[in-house]
Amino acid sequence: MKAIAVTPKTPNSARVIEVPEPKVGDVPNGRGVRVKVLRVGLDGTDREINDGLYGAAPPGFDYLVLGHESFGVVEEVGPAVHEFAPGDHVVALVRHPGHSLYDTIGRPDLTTEATYHEHGINLLHGFLTESYVDEPEYLVKVPQGLKEVGVLLEPASVAEKGINQAYEIQRRLKVWQPKCAAVLGAGPLGLLATLFLRLRRLEVVTFARQEAPYLNSELVEALGATYVSTNQRSLSQVAMEGPPFDLIFEATGYSPLVFEAMGVLAKNGVLVLSSVTGGKRMVEVPADALNLSFVLGNKVMVGTVNAAREDFEAGVRDLSMAEAEYPGWLRRLLTRKVEGLGTCPKEIKLLEFGPGNIKTFVELAPLQ
Ligand code: BGC
Ligand code: ZN
Predict the structure, then answer these.
(1) 166 φ/ψ sector (left φ>0, alpha ψ -120 to 50, else beta)
(2) Residues 131, 68: one domain?
């Protein structure tokens, strides 16, 4: 069968290759689940891997099958699988456990080990292929009614983890009642974070560079949130004029903004950092003032990566809520469909996230 693979650390190597078909029996003890891949979303991580900046092949391979944002349908299960049946729609977890304490309690997203195993990214093949076999432990069921937008569950799980971690941390305050949030960035992650914060009834201001109106700003406003172009007003200006930001979710990929966010966070507030920044950027910051405001304001800043099963499950609930409360909104994120694997390498090379294109996804087989 066909797959899209790269030679890790080699720029522009995405190509179609032939790989062996996986069998349910590849997983021991009758626990295999064979999934036919229907859709795979693409993001900046895929582009960075194809740029040769990131990614590693599984042991014994000189290629890495790409794709970590999957959506598929179960075709066959081993005799000891009771969690899934053929016809179930599923999304696969991205990270598999290592050996730290966190890995052993089902939280590989919190691993303290130096190496981590991520499908389509690091040491595990991805899902840009016709089918894959995994264990039920690494699959999440998606209800039939979400199949049109199920490919958004993986990025949704990343936004959910950041927000869930923030709420978990804020239990330190006993009576935290956040009113206003800022989301930095209006790409898929920023938009999904805006959605989930709106579903929690927060006032949300979402910041991005591009001037309104365009698709992303319209999507922000369709949620009853406010869109601000940082070309017109900076985060600090908006913070001075309005209520303080109890929660800030950073998802721009531009690390200097973190320090501006630190400066405007409300007392007792929480700042969530989610951008994977591979560069070497240096900036000068008002260190004393930022430190003082964190100390005197009991503020918290937390980094977040990947997601646990519970964040995928929270994603399923919130995507369902979104379909009920903002019908059609999620579908508008799926801006570019690539048909089949044939033209996919070109799309990965040209992958652009400019205004107007929010999520490119590959359709490997029609939704069923
Ligand atoms: C993926 C995460 C992953 C991260 C770092 C992101 O694109 O969505 O699941 O943990 O990259 O590799
Ligand atoms: Zn991703």
Answers:
(1) alpha
(2) yes
Q: Do 318 and 160 meet the contact criterion of CB atoms below 8 Å apart?
A: yes
CATH of residue 7: 3.90.180.10
CB count within 10 Å of CB 273 equals 21
Q: Is the pLDDT of residue 352 over 70?
A: no
Residue nearest to atom 3 of ligand 1 (CA): 306
Sequence-separated (6 or more) residues with CB below 8 Å from residue 129: 1, 2, 3, 4, 19, 37, 65, 67, 341
Q: How many CB atoms within 10 Å of residue 176? A: 16
Give the closest residue (by CA) to ligand 1 atom 12.
Answer: 121
What CATH number is given to the structural domain containing 233?
3.40.50.720
Instruction: Based on the fold, state whether residues 34 and 82 are members of the same structural domain.
Output: yes
The Cα–Cα gap between 366 and 368 comes to 6
In this structure, the answer to whether residues 276 and 175 fall within a common structural domain is yes
Reported as a single tens digit per residue, the pLDDT across 133-183 is 999 999 999 999 999 999 999 999 999 999 999 999 999 999 999 999 999
Mean pLDDT estimate for the chain = 96
**Which structural domain, as residue segments, surrounds residue 40?**
2-142+330-363
CB of 94 within 6 A of ligand 1: the answer is yes
Q: Are 107 and 115 in contact (CB under 8 A)?
A: no
Q: Count up the domains in the chain and report the number.
A: 2
Do 79 and 56 share a domain, yes or no? Answer: yes
pLDDT in tens, 304-317: 999 999 999 999 99
The whole-number average pLDDT for the span 234-262 is 97
- Residue having the nearest C-alpha atom to atom 9 of ligand 1: 306
Between 340 and 169, where is the model more confident?
A: 169
Encoding tokens for residue 218?
């319209």
188 CA to middle of ligand 2, Å?
10
Nearest atom within ligand 1 for CA of residue 305:
10
CB count, 10 Å around CB of 89? 23
